[in-house]
From TrEMBL:
<keyword id="KW-0560">Oxidoreductase</keyword>
<dbReference type="InterPro" id="IPR013022">
    <property type="entry name" value="Xyl_isomerase-like_TIM-brl"/>
</dbReference>
<comment type="similarity">
    <text>Belongs to the bacterial two-domain DSD family.</text>
</comment>
<feature type="binding site">
    <location>
        <position position="592"/>
    </location>
    <ligand>
        <name>Mg(2+)</name>
    </ligand>
</feature>
<feature type="domain" description="VOC">
    <location>
        <begin position="440"/>
        <end position="584"/>
    </location>
</feature>
<feature type="binding site">
    <location>
        <position position="443"/>
    </location>
    <ligand>
        <name>Mg(2+)</name>
    </ligand>
</feature>
<dbReference type="Pfam" id="PF14696">
    <property type="entry name" value="Glyoxalase_5"/>
</dbReference>
<dbReference type="Pfam" id="PF01261">
    <property type="entry name" value="AP_endonuc_2"/>
</dbReference>
<dbReference type="InterPro" id="IPR050312">
    <property type="entry name" value="IolE/XylAMocC-like"/>
</dbReference>
<keyword id="KW-0670">Pyruvate</keyword>
<dbReference type="GO" id="GO:0046565">
    <property type="term" value="F:3-dehydroshikimate dehydratase activity"/>
</dbReference>
<keyword id="KW-0456">Lyase</keyword>
<dbReference type="InterPro" id="IPR036237">
    <property type="entry name" value="Xyl_isomerase-like_sf"/>
</dbReference>
<keyword id="KW-0223">Dioxygenase</keyword>
<dbReference type="GO" id="GO:0046279">
    <property type="term" value="P:3,4-dihydroxybenzoate biosynthetic process"/>
</dbReference>
<comment type="function">
    <text>Catalyzes the conversion of 3-dehydroshikimate to protocatechuate (3,4-dihydroxybenzoate), a common intermediate of quinate and shikimate degradation pathways.</text>
</comment>
<dbReference type="InterPro" id="IPR029068">
    <property type="entry name" value="Glyas_Bleomycin-R_OHBP_Dase"/>
</dbReference>
Length: 624
């Protein structure tokens, strides 16, 4: 598949954008007119730069508001067009994108539009330019790709075809299977964009909220399937108008973009295999990736800290046992059931405790790592001694290290043999191996910087096959927190990504959205009782909360008393019940313990605002 990207997707100058696209590995680019107009570089210099970097210039765009106009306007439009065709000759670009008229059209007549477009096509032919006519979703008379194609068919010129843009088609819920009725040689260009489903006017939606494939809600593998079945084999180009991508590092965005196309190529291949069978052949070559099964669980979580005492104490209070220190590194292992927490003091100078790494159980770590690297994940350089387990790791967009660990049938991990309990046990090392009430990690919740959120979603979706659940918004004293759960089908992995509000000016902001690990247990009240006896600092829950709980759920007095005494939170739905509590925060991390009863599948979402407000109250008090 030939990959391309519109310069409008990225921040920076045209030159910076071109470099970023080349570095990320694109085959070509679309030059967005505005980027050229403001560039101090001549068209010839741009052409040379792209050429040196091995990028083809696939499209010049957009040319706007041409057809359906009065004769005097048409004259002016032809004059404007001719200047652009000359410019395209200097740039060495063969195809121009023409949007359907959104503003100046006054005559709603396909025959007339086609006749005017014939004049444009004949003028373009003198400059060897092809015209790709694209229906914008808010076009005045033409806003549907099949309508634009009918007009292109009437124009009936070899240098006049259509451009299909997934946003304009899927945002309006036009049936994309109509693509298969368009002759492949008349599809001059394809633009892809994903977007979250939103109820707002389509122009604002398109200009501000497009995202890369895999980051939104559109069924793009199916969309690509129609193009492939139509016989299309031209460039597949990303055209993403997005407020965040326009202001963040263009090199990083270009890599995110490339990842989305690599992943989509694979998804399209899999979709076509599903619908057409393995023997189906088509002109477009679709690259595939190493296939991996879903990860089955968390192998470990790693907390990095200069001072480890506070984290050790929390783990002890939760019933974890100290399993020892690494043979060669300043790293501790704490375990309970199949929950393993590594506390790492390496390169942790001045570092408050924070989650630095997550280990995922996978069938084959080498294959899983190779898939991640093909998806442009950065490998984490690691030094291991000859007799140590070799662990594969890549960096997630928020710099959390993602370890791909070999899953074992009994839930143990081979690398734990490198830890020896004898050498200098810390205080509280006794643990409580007779009462392993905590069984495993239920979920991990990571705070994402707002500018890397979409990238993180695509990263976890493409490299680890985590599926996105509907996202929610949770009020906190500092603003709305967006919460996005990603999980595997069997719930072996549940990962919640939280995006803190963008404008964090409050002094406590930085510490207001710590990450956390939630442990699953078999008896929450017993865990809480033990923890209280060991002096755990629970996150306090206000009395108002319990009054509301009683009003909503009519809990029996005794349960309500117990919940309130231990600062436990509660939720219930048709499938079951959920009990949980939070520890105080140390540095940038805290822990949660949860008990799922029956088939409860959520995360106690109604309780999250209570937690965020309680954490805010605490951090404010600590500041004072
Ligand atoms: O929003 C626009 O104007 C616009 C311009 C060019 C395109 O290809 C497009 O999809 C939208
Ligand atoms: Mg477009």
């Amino acid at each position: 598949m030939r990959t391309s990207i519109a310069t409008v997707c990225l921040s920076g100058t045209l030159e910076e954008k071109i470099h970023a696209c080349a570095e990320a590995g694109f085959d070509g680019i679309e030059i967005f007119e505005q980027d050229l107009l403001v560039s101090p570089r001549s068209p010839e210099q741009i052409r040379m730069l792209a050429d040196e970097l091995g990028l083809s210039l696939d499209l010049y765009q957009p040319f706007r508001d041409f057809e359906g106009v009065t004769e005097d306007l048409l004259e002016a439009n032809l004059y404007r067009a001719e200047a652009k065709f000359k410019l395209m000759n200097l740039l060495g670009i063969g195809t121009v994108l023409l949007c359907t008229n959104v503003a100046t059209a006054t005559i709603d007549d396909d025959e007339l539009a086609a006749a005017q477009l014939q004049r444009l096509a004949d003028l373009a032919a003198r400059y060897s330019v092809r015209i790709a006519y694209e229906a914008l979703a808010w076009g005045k008379y033409v806003n549907d790709f099949e309508h634009a194609w009918r007009i292109a068919d009437l124009v009936d010129r070899p240098n006049f075809g259509t451009c299909l843009d997934s946003f304009h088609i899927l945002s309006r819920n036009w049936d994309p299977s109509g693509i298969e009725k368009i002759p492949a040689e008349k599809i001059f260009f394809v633009q892809l964009a994903d977007a979250p489903r939103m109820s707002m006017d389509v122009l604002s939606w398109s200009r501000h909220h497009r995202v890369f494939p895999g980051e939104g809600d559109f069924a793009l593998a199916q969309f690509m399937g129609h193009l492939v079945r139509a016989g299309y084999n031209g460039p597949v180009s990303l055209e993403i108008f997005n407020d965040i991508f326009r202001q963040t590092d263009e090199k990083r965005t270009a890599v995110d973009a490339m990842r989305s196309l690599i992943w989509l190529e694979e998804q399209t291949h899999l979709h076509l295999q599903d619908t057409e069978g393995p023997g189906f052949s088509y002109p477009m070559e679709l690259a595939t990736l190493p296939k991996v099964d879903d990860p089955t669980g968390f192998n470990f979580t790693e907390v990095k800290a200069e001072h480890t005492g506070a984290v050790q104490e929390l783990l002890y209070q939760l019933g974890f046992g100290y399993a020892g220190r690494h043979r060669t590194k300043p790293v501790q292992l704490w375990t309970q059931g199949q929950a393993r927490v590594v506390i790492n003091e390496q390169q942790a100078r001045n570092l408050e405790p924070s989650i630095a790494a997550l280990g995922f159980d996978v069938e084959n770590p080498v294959v899983a790592a190779s898939r991640a690297v093909q998806l442009k994940a950065q490998p984490v350089p690691r030094q291991s001694q000859a007799d140590e387990e070799v662990l594969q790791a890549v960096s997630a967009p928020d710099s959390t290290e993602v370890f791909l660990c070999e899953a074992s049938a009994d839930g143990t991990a081979a690398w734990t043999r490198e830890f020896t309990p004898e050498s200098g046990a810390p205080e509280h090392a006794a643990g409580d191996p007779t009462a392993e009430l905590i069984t495993r990690v239920d979920h991990v919740n990571l705070s994402q910087p707002w500018q890397h959120y979409d990238e993180a979603v695509l990263f976890y979706e493409s490299t680890l096959s985590l599926a996105r659940q509907p996202s929610t918004e949770v009020p906190s004293p500092l603003g709305l927190v967006r919460s996005q759960v990603m999980r595997t089908e069997d719930r072996g992995i549940r990962l919640a990504l939280n995006v803190a509000p963008m404008a964090l000016e409050h002094p406590t902001a930085a510490s207001s959205y710590p990450a956390h690990v939630a442990f699953a247990c078999t008896d929450l009240i017993a865990v809480a009782r033990r923890a209280l006896a060991r002096g755990l600092d629970f996150l306090p829950v206000p009395a108002n909360y319990y009054a509301d709980l009683q009003a909503r759920f009519r809990l029996d007095e005794q349960l309500l008393d117990t919940l309130q005494r231990y600062n436990l939170l509660y939720d219930r739905d048709e499938d079951g019940e959920f009990l949980h509590f939070y520890t105080a925060t140390v540095g940038n991390v805290f822990f949660e313990v949860v008990e799922r009863r029956g088939g409860y599948d959520g995360y106690g979402a109604p309780n999250t605002p209570v937690r965020l407000a309680a954490q805010y109250e605490r951090s404010r008090r600590e500041q004072d």
